[in-house]
Amino acid sequence: MIVYVVFTKAKEDSWILRRLHKDISHCFIMFNQLDKWIVLDHSVNKLEAYTISDYSDILSESLVIKVKTIEAVSYFSLNTCVSFVKRFIGLKDIRIQTPYQLFKRLSLWV
Known about the structure:
The protein is about 25% helix and about 30% strand. The protein contains 3 helices and 5 strands. Strands 4-3-2-1-5 form a 5-stranded antiparallel sheet. It is globular, with a radius of gyration of 13 Å.
């Protein structure tokens, strides 16, 4: 399955976000299914799943990396957007904990 990992600046403010990269502090998944774009956006508090038909707003304010998923994995991890994306795409590297680290890793993986 081909998915797009989207990296953005987090929309909410918290103490932990002040320690993350200033432009890449959140990530989520989007993929195409039957001519609709499905977005899976996980944060510590909730998982949002919705469809969109036009993704131009997302692309205009984000960095996007196209990834071919491998078998989804389940392991002990923190309840973060990075952990969610890593499980979904099958990336098992426990050293990756921040959206910026994931961005750098996927930039090499592609």
